[in-house]
# Entry
Amino acid sequence: MPPTWPADPGSVTVPLTGYNRPMRLIDTHQHLWDLDLFTYSWMKGQPVLDRNFSLVDYRKATEGIDVVQSVFVEADVDQHLMIDEAKHILELADRDDNPISGLVAAARPETDDFIRHIEAIAGHPALKGIRRLLQSERDDLAIDPVFLKNIASLERFGLSFDICVRAHQLPQAIQMVRQCPGVQFILDHCGNPEIATGISNGWREGMAEMASLPNVSCKVSGIVVNGDWNNWTSEDLRPAIEWTIECFGWDRVMFGSDWPVCTLAAPLRRWVETLEGIIAAASEENRRKLYLDNARRIYRLAS
# Structure
């Protein structure tokens, strides 16, 4: 069933009332895509997302929210275009008319040419990390020997690795992190708890174990699409957000919008308002860590 929220992320204004207006923030999980330049096979069958999402659209979606910087995270572009997408975003990052300050680029660590791929884009100061979407791959890909060897090599490039897995894949992701202690890992979307069907004890235990590893941080991002797209409430999301912050602490969590994927369930503004309500009792210092300071430190962003 399609979501009831309009597909145009700029067409809805949700006033940030009733909560503290968020302070200046860094969006650590922003996508863009231009279907005239690149192809994304996964979008077929996703009419809400199967169109261009530009910086103009992003500005509309964030109107009234003080986004001072953002990190572009690869959008699962078709494999033969991964380097082209990365170079395109790095060119955008060189301009002064947009918030993009960092790039998490696409790559395939399971391939023998991974190092050559990294060398083709390495050296630009805006390149911060690599992501290989694992959530739709076989569960043991993250612990494949070639995969692990290549992930470990990110240490010498000074690059982090974004982990995007389903909740049931957390054990494999934990094994990967344990075997690459010199790499900074960032867990996307609170580890993707199964909000619509009920958060499992396996997710809770996995998050606690993942958080026990000092080289992992976590994004509070993306989880609106894990709920019932048409009927979710803030109370549906609250247990996942509160447990994530309890496990990782305020020093290792970062805000992310997951725009425009979040528009499957809500405009970006509604997600921000919801998060503000859930953390309403937090101190200004901790809110600043979540929204700003941790992102600058973990993704090594210039202030």
Confidence is low (pLDDT under 50) at residues 1-18. The chain has ten helices and eight strands. Residues 25-298 form a domain with the TIM Barrel fold (CATH 3.20.20.140).
